[in-house]
Amino acid sequence: MKRAVIFDLDGTLSDSIRSIQYSADKALAEFGLGPFPVEDYKYFVGDGAAKLVERCLLASGDRELSLFDRVYPRYREIFRENCMYQVKPYRGIPEVLGALRERRIAAAVLSNKPHRETVEVIGALFGEGCFERIQGQEEGLARKPSPEGVFRILEGLGLLPNDALYVGDTCTDMRTGKSAGVFTLGALWGFRDRRELEENGADAVLENPLEILDYIG
Question: Are residues 34 and 100 in the same domain?
Answer without folding.
Answer: no
